[in-house]
TrEMBL record:
It comes from Streptomyces cyaneofuscatus. It comes from the Bacteria. The chain crosses the membrane at residues 36-56, 202-232, 252-273, 301-322, 328-353, 393-412, 542-564, 569-588, 608-628, 649-670, 682-700. PROSITE patterns: SSD. Residues 1-23, 729-772 are annotated as: Disordered. Gene3D superfamilies: Multidrug efflux transporter AcrB transmembrane domain. This is MMPL family transporter. It is found in: Cell membrane. It is a multi-pass membrane protein.
């Protein structure tokens, strides 16, 4: 790995000047007292374990609703004024072979209703046996419902459900009772996610360790990335636990914490440990190797973490706490992973020194082949591959781009919906209850639309308004009004599906319908979906703008080029096409649903594509920074464009591929979840990461950079001056200014060897291990 900023033929250590290397303040802090640094990290991690305990129990499983939307206002008002209008707890009473109108069944149902009414935290209890409402009785007459409202926020509602559910579920006299409703669905989803996350960690950790041993060879070196990841995960759990005291946090964010905590920690540790081992192999002592590693690879890690954090922070512009939660978790875990990699890891390397290569478990597999030679062959293999791609650059650029676009075409048919009980596995009790209601009842007490009517009204005025509602296209039936003081509500049943396009249009028509002196607002599942889609459409340009603008700025600071940042944004977007196409083809259209064990609902939850875009774009930038930093460093040294591209890919191709495979393993482990959205998130991002590393970075980037040639590095004079002053580089010092044209003042020097790049395994004549 060549890290040269001095004259041609000068090594990284020689370029720093005679005598001991001048270590920066950060390096001195990390290297001066490594034992104290590790002890402090151990104490902080132990405190994080204590502070983050029980975090999942305080998280919510909702968050798809925009809090400032009309549907949110109407829902809150109806809960306050008419608790029975918004039941979130349903007891499905199965009478077996008897009719629900049988006297013994009715008597038992009455006792259950009385018991439920007496429970603390329960309001708005009603039942079929009280009201004889057709919507509460199954069409076959063998099942009926008791509906109620559990008050409080999601955490309080979950605690109430845990307390009362065992007392009601199961056999009760002549009937069998099953517990369902939205609160039961959310609680069961939260429980399953916690169980699945533990299983994913048990799968991912040993598999990841095996892969790291294969990459590093040394068992000692392989353990270091896992330790960094564990510290990042535990620290993020503590941060999320603190945030739950002030705001709602989605339990789904726990999956991102685990995935990014392990994935990014491994990325950063791979980069740093590999560089440290190269410095040792080149003859540096431990302290000098750590210092050089921090000033070079460490700088790139910090820069990469910033780009990923920016991509994730874009989700803060959305009002839904489901998306905001991923920003909280993502930013925290990225920064903590970078901090652990830049503080904890160097301290460990200071203590280990050459022993970082101990316990070489690959020795038997190599059968006598020297590691240095094998590493050199790997680097030369990537170099030859890069040369092949650049010789046929137009072909590779066109074929790869067309292929990625074709893979993304299914996304043009995306249909957005909302999450429901079908997210759960088929045997989940709350899902079974909802399926019985959906398939066997003429209407759902927790479905349909509700129109809140506020203002003083007379029976005649309410009757006139009801008549007007009934005439709106798409209305099947209107029930009500139910009145209380200066408010009332109507229940509106649509002709279409619960969240279908017809019902969404009905929501819009009801909201624009004249209501005379009344103030009206509409809520219900379809209304929540309409408001969620509108909120995302309203904020999405801001989120994309933040990501694009900051990415352009950061990549410019890294490269000093105007064209490379634009290429980075476009190519990163292309790397996501396969993920979005697969999401629609698999999860919306139901292909592979049997193999992957999920139920397709025919649509995609509205917030998921936004989440997956922000996460996958950030991870793509992570790999992009690793590659571009090496290309830029070599271009500064030699001024040879093609040589620099070949060199960059030869030195990072294996590293990026290994990191991508390991991160994909973690995401696939997350994708084994029994909850469909979590499965979609894990498998989708795993696909995006692999496509980015193995297709975009390996094929498209070198092909495009070959086509753009030396113009790749062009920047106008004012921007060159800006980059000279503020630019970043993985080199030993900030770049002296890259003009983009060989020979200009402040530009790169001459190549050390005309027409060829140094082979992996050498550094200007010194033997180097290419490492991972």
């Amino acid at each position: 790995m060549s890290e040269v900023n001095g004259p041609p033929g000068t090594s990284a250590r020689q370029s720093a000047g005679p005598g001991p290397q001048r270590l920066g303040g950060w390096t001195r802090f990390v290297t001066a007292r490594p034992r104290i640094a590790l002890l402090a990290a151990l104490v902080i991690t132990a405190l994080a374990v204590f502070a983050g305990s029980g975090v999942a129990d305080r998280m919510g499983s909702g968050g798809w609703q925009a809090p400032d939307a009309e549907s949110s206002y109407a829902t809150a008002a109806l809960e306050r004024e008419f608790p029975a209008s918004q039941p979130n707890l349903l007891l499905l009473v199965d009478s077996g072979t008897a009719s629900v109108d049988d006297p013994a069944v009715a008597a038992e149902a009455a006792r259950l209703t009385e018991r439920l009414t007496a429970e603390q935290g329960i309001s708005g209890v009603t039942s079929y046996w009280q009201t004889k409402a057709p919507a509460l009785r199954a069409e076959d007459g063998r099942e009926a419902l008791i509906a109620a409202r559990i008050g409080g926020d999601e955490t309080e509602a979950g605690e109430t459900l845990e307390r009362i559910a065992p007392a009601f579920a199961g056999e009760s006299g002549p009937v069998k009772v099953s517990v369902g409703g939205p609160v039961a669905v959310q609680h069961e989803m939260q429980t399953i996610i916690q169980e699945d996350l533990l299983r994913a960690e048990l799968i991912a950790l040993p598999v990841t360790l095996i892969l790291l041993v294969m990459v590093f060879g040394s068992a000692i070196a392989a353990m270091l990335p896992l330790l960094v990841g564990i510290v990042a995960i535990l620290g993020t759990n503590a941060v999320l636990r603190g945030l739950t005291e002030f705001t709602d946090v989605s339990v789904f964010a726990m999956n991102l914490t685990t995935a990014l905590g392990l994935g990014l920690a491994i990325d950063y540790a791979l980069f740093i440990v590999r560089r440290f081992r190269e410095e040792l192999d080149a003859g540096a002592d431990t302290r000098t190797a750590v210092g050089t590693t921090l000033r070079t690879a460490g700088r790139t890690v910090l820069f990469s973490a910033l780009t990923v954090a920016v991509s994730l922070s874009a989700m803060l512009v959305f009002p839904q706490y489901f998306l905001r939660s991923f920003a909280y978790a993502g930013i925290a875990v990225v920064l903590l992973a970078a901090a652990a990699a830049l503080i904890l890891l160097p301290a460990a390397l200071m203590l280990l020194g050459p022993r970082v290569n101990a316990l070489d478990l690959r020795r038997l597999l190599r059968r006598g082949k020297k590691e240095e030679a094998a590493a050199g062959e790997t680097g030369r293999g990537w170099a030859r591959f890069a040369e092949l791609v650049m010789r046929r650059a137009p072909v590779f650029a066109i074929v790869t781009t067309v292929g990625l676009v074709l893979l993304g075409l299914p996304f043009l048919g995306v249909k957005f919906g909302t999450a429901d009980d079908r997210q759960l596995p088929a045997g989940a009790e709350s899902r079974v209850v909802q399926e019985h209601i959906r398939d066997g009842f003429p209407g759902s007490p927790s479905g349909g639309l509700s129109m809140l009517v506020e203002g003083e009204g007379t029976p005649a005025a309410y009757a006139a308004l009801k008549d007007r509602i009934e005439k709106v296209p798409g209305v099947q039936r209107v029930d009500g009004p139910v009145t209380a003081d200066s408010a009332a509500y109507f229940s509106v049943l649509s002709d279409g599906e619960a969240v279908g396009q017809d019902t969404q249009q009905l929501v819009r028509d009801l909201r624009t319908m004249p209501a005379d002196s009344f103030d009206t607002s509409v809520t219900g599942t379809a209304a929540v979906l309409v408001d969620s889609k509108d909120a995302i459409a309203d904020r999405l340009p801001w989120a994309i703008g933040i990501i694009v603008v900051v990415t352009l700025l950061l990549v410019f600071l890294l490269t000093g080029s105007v064209l490379i940042p634009i290429q980075a944004v476009v190519l990163n977007a292309l790397s996501l096409t396969a993920m979005f196409g697969a999401v629609v083809w698999v999860f919306q259209d139901g292909n592979l649903s049997g193999i992957l064990a999920f139920t397709s609902t025919g649509d995609i939850e509205t917030t998921l594509p936004v989440l997956m875009f922000c996460v996958a774009f950030g991870l793509s930038m992570d790999y992009g920074v690793f590659l571009l930093s090496r290309i830029k460093e070599e271009y500064d040294r030699t001024g040879d464009h093609e040589r620099s591209v070949t060199f960059g890919l030869s030195r990072t191709g294996g590293l990026i591929t290994a990191a991508a495979v390991i991160l994909a393993v973690v995401m696939v482990a997350i994708g084994t979840s029994r909850v469909t959205n979590t499965k979609m998130l894990g498998l989708g991002i795993a696909l995006a990461v692999l496509m980015d590393a193995m297709v975009v970075r390996s094929l498209l980037v070198p092909a495009v950079m070959k086509l753009t040639g030396h113009a790749t590095w062009w920047a106008p004079k004012p921007l060159r001056a800006f980059h000279q002053r503020f630019g970043l580089s993985e080199g030993e010092s900030a770049p002296a200014g890259s003009s983009g044209t060989k020979g200009e003042p402040g530009g790169p020097g001459e190549p050390t060897t005309e027409g060829e790049i140094p082979e992996a395994g050498t550094r200007d004549g010194e033997k180097v291990t290419a490492g991972a």
